[in-house]
Design goal:
This protein has 296 residues and is an alpha+beta fold. It comes from Winogradskyella aquimaris.
Length: 296
């Protein structure tokens, strides 16, 4: 952050209507999952939520107490790592979560184990995703993963997976293998739902096209779909049975949303059926036209 005025303005966003609304809806979804699905059926999730419910199961402590306490160190790490704006968003979300777990009377919704795992995961994922969209988190493992990533060179996904594997092994020891397997299902459902809520239809995809008609492909992407492109110099050919046959070509790369990629591929295939295309998911984009167009 550069300057006092800028940081004050960012901090005020914590209390904007959109931010508060997303946090309240996200917290409500998380509480439905915790009190309506998971605790009554002794199901757990991954992350700090899973650890908190495990502590509740073993020591009969209200789940909000370990959940808040376990998250507080990560609020501080988030403050040091990502600034006061992120820490304030997270602290507000945790306060809402603690209050909601105490005052919202959520009855047990179902005893069916599969429904508990599936819909418990859905509501946890909705809660986590909406709070992330509001600017904070309600599970500090995301913060420690980013922090440890810089320290040890491991990816955030590897760190979270290692921690959660340990949690599920502990669940298997204390609550049985079946509960551990259902908890894994809950975790992966929550993970997919939260990813979708955070990225939504705006999730970015890299589309690469190799074609003898590279100029035509460029015109379709830039002029018909108004998308920027990058061009690499490469060669086509080198196929089995004709290894020595190759020709220079332009390799065209563009970054689009998941809604756009199908339309662009279809348009290119209609005019150039032999064009070779492949897509890759993108975890992060910084700078450039795409980043500015998709900034929230």
């Amino acid at each position: 952050m550069s300057g006092h005025h800028s940081s004050t303005f960012e901090f005020s966003n914590v209390f904007s209507f959109k931010s508060i609304f997303l946090k309240l809806i996200g917290v409500a979804c998380a509480v439905v999952a915790i009190k309506g699905f998971m605790i009554p059926n002794h199901f757990l999730d991954g992350g700090l939520l899973g650890i908190s419910i495990l502590i509740h199961e073993i020591y009969y402590i209200d789940v909000w107490i370990p959940l808040i306490l376990l998250n507080l160190p990560f609020v501080y790490i988030g403050y040091k790592k990502m600034g006061k704006n992120f820490a304030a968003h997270t602290l507000v979300a945790l306060v809402f979560l603690g209050i909601a777990l105490n005052v919202l009377p959520i009855p047990e919704i179902t005893k069916d184990h599969f429904l508990v795992a599936a819909f418990g995961g859905v509501f946890v994922g909705l809660g986590i995703g909406l709070v992330i969209r509001s600017g904070g988190v309600i599970d500090g493992l995301e913060v420690i993963a980013e922090y440890t990533n810089d320290k040890f060179g491991l990816s955030a996904a590897e760190i979270i997976m290692a921690i959660n594997t340990t949690i599920f092994l502990i669940i298997a020891f204390f609550l049985g293998l079946e509960k551990a397997m259902y908890s894994i299902l809950t975790f992966f459902t929550a993970l997919r739902v939260s990813d979708y809520v955070v990225d939504g239809f705006e999730k970015l995809i890299s589309l690469t096209i190799i074609s003898p008609n590279d100029q035509l492909v460029k015109e379709i992407i830039v002029n018909e779909f108004n998308k920027p492109i990058s061009v690499y110099r490469g060669e086509r050919g080198n196929l089995p049975g004709s290894f020595n046959e190759n020709k220079d070509c332009d390799i065209i790369v563009t970054v689009v949303t998941r809604l756009e990629v199908h339309k662009i591929k279809k348009a290119i295939a209609a005019k150039d059926p032999k064009a070779f295309m492949y897509v890759q998911n993108i975890n992060e984009v910084k700078g450039g036209i795409v980043s500015r167009q998709n900034a929230h």
